[in-house]
Amino acid sequence: MSRPIKVAAAVLTLIGATAGSKVVAQPGLEPARQAGIDGLVVRLGDPDFPTREAAERDLLSLGLAAKPAVLKALQQSTDPEIRARCQRLVPQINFNFCWARASRIFGNTAAARLQFVELYGPERELWYALAEGDPGLGRKYAARCKELATGPPRSGARNEAADLARYELREGRLGTLLVIGAECRSQIPEDALLLAAALFKRQWGGQYAKDTPPLLRRSYLTWAEEVSPLPVEYTGDKKLERPRAALRSGTVPARDRPDALLTLARAQDKGDDDLIRGFLTDDTVCDTLFSKGIKTEVRLRDIALAAR
Questions:
Q1: pLDDT-derived band of residue 238, with 50, 70 and 90 as boundaries?
Q2: 225 contacts: CB under 8 Å, gap ≥ 6
Q3: Backbone torsion region of residue 242, taken as left when φ is above 0, otherwise alpha when ψ lies between -120 and 50, otherwise beta
Q4: 171-183: b (≥16 Cβ within 10 Å) or e
Q5: Residues 6 or more apart from 273 whose CB is under 8 A from it?
Q6: Does the pTM of the predicted model rise above 0.85?
């Protein structure tokens, strides 16, 4: 399955999720506005298909303001079309609410939204808590880290009720712990942050490098910048900015440029090809080697050639 198809499937799974959640809707709407929302809910069952579609779009655009009426119709309406559309609307409203908060972290782009789909799915409750400004976020974060560290319940010979998937150290789950931990570090107990770091290292250890999935890599960057670097190999994104700057600078000594060239070569980012290629004609001596009495001057062009 291709990456775009996988992402699309993730989106569809997310949007079709169970309606129940703990996201708090906005109370106390003006009567006129409430009447307008109620009217839109009624139109979800209109005989005219375009009218039903338009009502659903309008309710989704209203966000949390529409959620109480949508939930009420989901629970009480006798019209199967209205119930079906409300069933679909609630998780969409919840997702959009959380994305509005998350976009302040990731940036409001299509690519970032797709990344968030993968983060949001495994850990919705933590994202709800972040989006709502829940004062209990730190406690929930700590409890979740502890739960992941200890694993599923072991009472009895077999616990049929345990949702084993809830305890898997998935990429999106670890990404959520890293991003929310970094974003809300002042609210989260220090031991919970240490436990989140331990979970990351348990799953990835020294294997974390440029070929680690981009979702987790970007989440790790947020953590490393705001909390603390983890003792794992990393050669992507931000880590490459320093060697790039060294090669572009006219003041960095020649002896410091070979390491920068080789670092970019190991990262294999095609965006750096022109930068490396620019040193293929650079005759500057960057090192001198002596072997068996023979002196050899190493030039930047030699390093650039090797880097290619």
A1: low
A2: 182, 238
A3: alpha
A4: bbbbbbbbbbbbb
A5: none
A6: no
